[in-house]
Write a structure and sequence with these properties.
Blueprint (H helix, E strand, L loop, with lengths): L3 E4 L6 E4 L5 E6 L2 H7 L4 E7 L3 E5 L3 E3 L5 E5 L6 E6 L5 E5 L13 E3 L23 H7 L8
Parallel strand pairs: 3-10
Antiparallel strand pairs: 1-2, 2-5, 3-4, 4-9, 6-7, 7-8, 8-9
Length: 148
Amino acid sequence: MNPITGGCQCGRVRYAMGVDRVQKPHVCHCRMCQKATGGLFAALAGCAKIDLAWTLGEPVFFASSNLATRGFCGDCGTPLTFAYNTPDARIYVTIGSLDDPELASIELQYGLEAKISWVKFCEDVPGEITGNDPAAQAFLADMTSNQA
């Protein structure tokens, strides 16, 4: 098995995922992901936290809320990761930071409540509104955003 690899645009931070395929490739249209990436949405694909290794340098982390942390290159600013602060959660890498983004075909969209109206992207991909089910509502009930 060849690891799935990626890194930032300046090359100072590199990672390898010890899996044969990325898990849950998706886009998230929520406002937090828009602000974190500076884009119209975040495109993410993951693996278990234990399966991600930093092979060169390490990212800087920002707690975007009390529930999640985002990693980025401290030198060039490339957004690299998103992870909930729970031990069993996956860590997601930005699909654009993968050496081969073709490995992460989008399967789902999140945060449709904040999808920008003129964005026409993955219209045939299923999606959901953030906090639309009771389990998600309970998890997000005490979230405090650290984004300005």
